[in-house]
Amino acid sequence: MKKIIQNHVWSISSFIENKNYKFDKKKILIDLPEKFIDEAIYSITNWNNYLPTPLIKLNKLSKELNIKEIFYKDEDKRFNLKSFKALGGAFAVSKIKNEKGNVVVATATAGNHGRSVAWGAKRLGLKCKIFISEFVSEARAEAMRNLESEVIRVKGNYEDSLKECIKQSTKNNWEIVQDVSWEGYEETPKFIMAGYTVMIKEIIDQIKDDKVTHVFLQAGVGGMAASIIAGFAKFSKNIPKFIIVEPEKADCVLKSIKNEKPTSVKISEETIMGGMSCGDVSTVAWKILKTSTNNCLTITDDAISTVVAMLAEAKLSNEKIIGGECAVPGIIALISLFKNKDYINKLDLSSDSKILLFGCEGLTDKKMYKKLLDDGLKKI
Ligand SMILES: Cc1ncc(COP(=O)(O)O)c(C=O)c1O
First and final CA of the chain: distance in angstroms? Predict the structure, then answer.
């Protein structure tokens, strides 16, 4: 049988170490306040139909790479929304409703965050306006319309849709529920990030001995990555290495870590990993990432369909897994690192390693998933 690693798709485009790494639990839990985390966890775990998502062992992959354990958090099973984003936007909407009453909420999105905001608004009877770029699929737009939100398509990319959302919300007095923060707009993004920490509370309960050594974190604006780090600061005695994974076409976290200050990236071509196609790091996320990230790396789109198919065909684990385009970057990064001894040494990857990966989304866009799966099946 052909080995997984023998496939020709694996490669790392850039790899850097963070010169300013200095993990400071106390500071992290001020930047993402502990009381927000406590409140989010209490609230979300009491929602109807709440269930922890599965933590699956990629045992076939760990055997081939000679790694002790590889855990995959399967967010396809997150409520009916099929991505971790369900935890953030909907929680922030509930906070806003409690504080401000029957307002209109608005957001810009690549799809999953908007679905969470629309879902939260529908449950609480609030009107919802969603701004999407020309690159967001009609299937994703339809999913948000089905949750009774108004979807407004904007010419240009994600950043353009965000600008339009801010413009119209300011004019019409709508409450912006955005998963990226900027100077003067930080409280709601903190609520959203606090919602994401539910994943870590679940994982620490699921792993039990909490001896994870390496965590691979996909990043768009960096909100998810920073919230997972904050979750470790709060719930885990052991602090693993945190490795940020981004598309090479949208590497704002890598560039910011390299330049030691937030650095914008102009996105000249869209990646398939739509949820991660962001040009600016979130200010709240940056405060945490700048000293808590160990390494950053980037990948191309080349291996995405291959891994989507490998998961679907149970090539990496005993069970079949549905993972969308933003679910697979951690797996791609890990396998690609094993093509290069230098990277393995730099990251201290060994037969004692316990790796944590995030399957951030599942079947969030059926058409896209089918296309990736059909393409990937030809390659494995
Ligand atoms: C579906 C999805 N959206 C968005 C993101 C990026 O999250 P953030 O923008 O908080 O960094 C990810 C991360 O991988 C993702 O999987």
Answer: 11
Whether this model's pTM surpasses 0.70: yes
**140, 166, 184 - which closes a domain:** 184
User: In this structure, what DSSP letter does residue 357 have?
Assistant: E
Among 82, 85, 117, name the best residue to mutate to test ligand 1's pocket (greatest count of ligand atoms within 8 A of Cβ): 85
| Distance of alpha carbon 233 from alpha carbon 22, whole angstroms | 13
- What does the pLDDT read at residue 156? 94
Angle 359-362-368 from CA coordinates, rounded to 5°: 120
CATH code: domain of residue 142: 3.40.50.1100
Residue 359 and residue 316: Cα distance in Å, rounded? 13
Average pLDDT over residues 39-54: 97
Ligand 1: distance of its center to the CA of 220 in Å? 5
The phi-psi region of residue 191 (left if phi > 0; otherwise alpha if psi is between -120 and 50; otherwise beta) is: alpha
The Cα 341–Cα 337 span in angstroms is: 8
Q: Do 55 and 71 belong together in one domain?
A: yes
Partner residues linked to 59 by β-bridges: none
Confidence grade of residue 42 (pLDDT, cut at 50, 70, 90): very high
Q: Are 15 and 295 in contact (CB under 8 A)?
A: yes
Specify burial of residue 20 (Cβ count, 10 A radius: 0-12, 13-18, 19+).
exposed
CB 62 within 8 A of CB 347: no
**Each residue of 185-200: pLDDT tens digit?**
999 999 999 999 999 9
pLDDT at residue number 1: 59
Last residue of some domain: 121, 153, 184? 184
Give yes or no: residues 211 and 102 share one domain. no
Distance 351 CA to ligand 1 centre (A): 29
Place of tokens 């909407």: 93
